[in-house]
Amino acid sequence: MSFQHLNSLTPSEERTESKKRPHLSVFRFASTQTTSRTPSQAPPAYSPDDVLAERNQLHAKVLHWMRIAIALVTLLVSLIIIAFSGNVLRIYTNTRYNNVEWILPLWPGTVDLRPTHATLACGIVLAVFSLIYIVLALAPTPLRSLRPLNLTSTVLAFLSLFITIFTAAFASTINNHLSDNTQAGTLASWTCKWQGFSSVAPGRFSDICAQSMAGLDLVILMIVIEVFHVLLAGWGWWVGAKSKKVGGEKGIAV
User: Fold this and answer.
1) Integer distance in angstroms from the first to the last C-alpha of the chain?
2) Cβ atoms within 10 A of the Cβ of 99, count?
3) At residue 23, what are phi and psi to the nearest 5 degrees?
4) Taken in order 134, 137, 142, 146, is the CA torsion positive or negative?
5) 176-203 burial by CB neighbour count: b if 16+ within 10 A, else e?
6) Cα angle 97-102-103, degrees, rounded to a multiple of 5
7) Nearest CA to 70 among 161, 146, 7, 141?
8) Neighbouring C-beta atoms of residue 123, cutoff 10 Å
9) Phi, psi values for residue 203, rounded to 5°
10) What does the alpha-carbon distance between residue 174 and residue 192 come to, in Å, rounded to a whole number?
């Protein structure tokens, strides 16, 4: 059909001609395209095992950071114990063997240093244990999973609890045994006899008494912390047992 013919058509003829021409429907085209696609599959159902796995993963994360917090607190308290015990021994050495200020001897003939040495050793061991766990828990190694950390935490928690109980009992027993002795004593029992007379106490006795007792008190505080550490170890094994039921205790990364 020529262009001149189209121009010569009347309006009624144009409407008739338009009906004869093929008509493309946008909606029909879209529906054709849609039906030609492969229908998408629905996402798989969320099973109860998936819910339990997510819950166990959350528990493992919380447990992981609580253990690290306990390790950091233990490290801080241990360093304070080391500082107190080391300073007490330093003052004692200066006043016993370099006594130029006082004419009479400040110390008895027998000074039992075992309580102070035990407190110092306890602080050192707890600090080392804390550093070991922090490194294992934060280092990107295969050991950074639930089962190895459970084992490490349990061993360190029970060892630390035993060491702190033994140290507190050992030091307290010796201090109490020599508290009334006038011929022998420990650093704490001998210097704490001057309590209430700090202004006239010789050779920084008030400092030795305060720091010795503070170090022993911190060891007793560590018993409470290590009991909580043991409870966290038990919680870790419980989370591991629950995770094993849904298929993957070893695979839980923390």
Assistant:
1) 78
2) 15
3) -120, 125
4) positive
5) eebeeeeeebbbbbbbbbbeeeeeebbb
6) 100
7) 161
8) 25
9) 50, 40
10) 14
Q: Nearest-5° angle of CA 124, CA 79, CA 159? A: 40
Token pair 């006899």 is found at 193
Average the pLDDT over each of 157-161, 216-220, 248-252 and give the range with the smallest value: 248-252
Which residue reads 């058509």 in tokens?
A: 9
Convert the pLDDT of each residue in 168-220 to its tens digit.
999 999 999 888 887 888 989 888 887 766 666 676 788 888 999 999 999 99
Q: Do the Cβ atoms of 167 and 78 come closer than 8 Å?
A: no
d(CA 171, CA 98): 26
Amino acid at 167: T
The 3-state DSSP class for residue 99 equals coil
Assign 82 to helix, strand or coil: helix
Which among 128, 126, 118, 134 has a CA at the least distance from the CA of 78?
A: 126
223 with 74: CB under 8 angstroms?
no
Nearest to 157, CA basis, from 237, 73, 70: 70
**Residue pair 59/150 in contact by the 8 Å Cβ criterion:** no
Tell me which residue has tokens 């493309």.
24
C-alpha distances in angstroms, 111 versus 179, 183, 206, 242? 12, 9, 17, 55
Nearest CA-CA partner of 125 in 161, 78, 85: 78
- What are 223's two structure tokens? 């018993």
HSE at residue 56, side-chain half, CA atoms within 13 A, is 26
